[in-house]
Design a protein that fits this description.
Layout (H helix, E strand, L loop, with lengths): L1 H20 L4 E3 L17 E8 L5 E6 L5 E6 L5 H13 L3 E4 L6 E16 L4 E15 L2 E15 L5 H21 L1 H8 L1
Parallel strand pairs: 1-4, 2-5, 2-6, 3-6
Antiparallel strand pairs: 3-4, 6-7, 7-8
């Protein structure tokens, strides 16, 4: 009986050690999916669109044990071009004629990636994960201005460290939800469509 118990402990220890050794640097690739339906809210008006990563710390988070062995999660690039492209397509479906936002444009929507966080902290037998995304939207049309922050977050527990694709899927799911909240904001759309 004692020998069986020792074998079980050895197998569990090896499993935990293998999990710790599998950690490697991870990179989030931006690929949000927006759900705009074809409408004529924008009535063909020209809208300047700008997307910026305004995070002070470009690190997204960590996976592992912060006191021992962990890896850093970073974003793919500082220029979120995939976010711009997806937002422009969605706004076009809403009836706007989207162009890059030059300084002279009166009607502008600025989307800001204000916070991207992902932590998967190793516990004795699990990884507790928490992700959070904050997207800011600043709408200007002539003398009118509207600003709001859209936040989404998620928590989960798994038996192994998350893979790069799982981290990217989580961040992009939350990013998509925040951006969809921007598009669903009637007050923001009313200012841009006026």
């Amino acid at each position: 009986m004692n020998a069986k118990y020792q074998v079980v402990l050895l197998v569990l220890s090896l499993g935990v050690a293998v999990q710790g050794c599998m950690l490697k640097s991870e990179t989030v690739h931006f690929a949000p999916k927006l759900e705009a339906r074809q409408t004529d809210v924008g009535k063909g008006t020209v809208l300047g669109l700008e997307v910026a990563d305004t995070r002070a710390d470009k690190k997204v988070g960590i996976v592992g044990d912060p006191k021992m062995k962990f890896i850093t999660v970073t974003a793919e690039d500082d220029s979120p071009s995939a976010v711009y492209k997806e937002a422009a397509n969605a706004l076009t479906k809403l009836g706007f004629k989207v162009e890059p936002a030059p300084d002279a444009t009166d009607r502008v929507l600025r989307l800001e990636l204000r916070e991207l966080q992902y932590e998967s902290i190793k516990q004795p037998f699990t990884f507790d994960s928490k992700a959070k995304v904050l997207v800011g939207a600043v709408a200007r049309n002539g003398g009118d201005r509207y600003e709001r922050t859209y936040e989404t977050e998620e928590t989960s527990t798994t038996g192994a460290p998350p893979s790069q694709s799982e981290i990217s899927q989580t961040i992009n799911r939350l990013l998509s939800a925040s951006l969809n909240d921007v598009l669903a904001d009637k007050q923001l759309m009313a200012i841009l469509a006026k």
